[in-house]
Amino acid sequence: MVKYINREFKTALNKLKFPDSWFWARYTINPYSGCEHACVYCDARSNRYYLQEIQDFENEVIIKTDIDKKLDLRIKRARTLLPDVVAMGGVNDSYQQIEKKAENTMKILKVFFKYKFPVCISTKSNLIIRDLELFEKIATNTWCAIGFSITTMDEELARFLEPFSSTPEERLEALKIIKKKAPNVQVGINFMPIIPFLCDTNKNLDKVIRKSSEAGAEFVLFSGLTLRDSQKDFFIKKLKKSNYKDAVQPLLDLYNGKKENWQEYYMRLNKKLLNLCKKYNLQVRMKRWIPKDYRKWNYKISELLLNKEYKDSLEGKSDSSMKWAGLNLNNLEESILDVYKRGEMPKLRNFNSKIIKFITPYLNRSKDLNLKKGLDKFL
Ligand code: SF4
């Protein structure tokens, strides 16, 4: 039995120093603390989130009281809070069971709609379709992306890994419904975490990506498993007691670098995933929300740089200056077009000659009407 606790929190919205290039989020919000989905691999159990210190993560769920009122006040009072993408569902699922009754997520979404903030949600629950009209309104107003997290199509394995969430088939059904009834919402699959020796068979990789494509997903974001401190201890303990205990030693060997290099493993896996996404016509990045103010070109060029860096990194050609140039550009307080016109691009952080050479053709096209076409073609 999950214990529910009502508690008031001082802050509602967290602002990130840089957006992430997965969900393009600039803010995060958690309607609850703790998650009754109780996935055995959940990274929220790692020490960096301090959640284990304040509660029994999956058996005690804290309902943040009046979170929508706090959020409303925060946005209304903060003059410097520009609308930008808010990610929901980082260290808990916004559509876990208690949402049916508490409706914190729905109340928060109404506030974001009111203030024209774009929203990105990750979930493993089909309860999300309850709010599809709201999503469509947000998407029409600004931008809305929904990613269903799926790590395996094997029902038995999914029941062990994610005991209290909707089944993978139910998640795909929910995606289909959103795609049909809320056509302006960007939908996709977060294929993560892909657990070595459990979810990385060719059969599973193909099935998850094929089924995602058949359901109407536009993107598949994929990533491996983190194995950190208390998250690792919990997961390995559960695995040892399960029908999947044979995976324990190979998994530990892989992460300890005994049998093969961890990076080499993921390089091989990424190659397979890239090929499957190509085969089933799926993007490996979601399309970014682009503001209409001075940030417009900063965000477009940032998306260009971060997507390129990501795709290069999948092939082992990581370029940290490209990544940092892309990230820092989000904090520029004027348009990059103005900087370009003044010939001051080398003054921008991490903008070396290689990066300037790469983006200049796109900036030049900004003088033409064809500009958007040029960028979209590349992305
Ligand atoms: S749904 Fe997400 S936050 Fe909740 S337990 Fe599973 S992985 Fe953790």
What labels describe this entry?
2 domains; seven-stranded mixed sheet; 10 strands; TIM Barrel; 11% strand; disordered C terminus; three-stranded mixed sheet
Q: Kindly report the CATH topology of the largest domain.
A: TIM Barrel
Largest sheet: 7 strands, mixed
Instruction: Note the overall shape.
Output: globular
CATH superfamily of the largest domain: Aldolase class I
What does this structure look like?
Helix 8 runs parallel beside helix 11 (262-279) and helix 15 packs across helix 16 (371-378). The longest helix is centred in the last third of the chain and has 19 residues, at 296-314. The protein has two domains: 3-279, Aldolase class I (TIM Barrel); 296-378. It has 16 helices and ten strands. It has a seven-stranded mixed sheet with strand order 2-3-6-7-8-9-10. With 379 residues, it is an alpha/beta fold. It has helices spanning 51-54, 67-77, 99-102, 104-114, 132-141, 155-161, 168-181, 202-215, 229-240, 248-255, 262-279, 296-314, 320-328, 336-341, 353-365, 371-378; strands at 3-7, 14-15, 27-29, 32-33, 60-64, 86-88, 119-123, 144-149, 186-191, 219-222. Bound molecules: iron/sulfur cluster (SF4). The site of iron/sulfur cluster (SF4) has 11 residues, from loops.
Summarize the structure.
The chain is an alpha/beta fold and 379 residues long. It has helices at residues 51-54, 67-77, 99-102, 104-114, 132-141, 155-161, 168-181, 202-215, 229-240, 248-255, 262-279, 296-314, 320-328, 336-341, 353-365, 371-378, and strands at 3-7, 14-15, 27-29, 32-33, 60-64, 86-88, 119-123, 144-149, 186-191, 219-222. It is 44% helix and 11% strand.
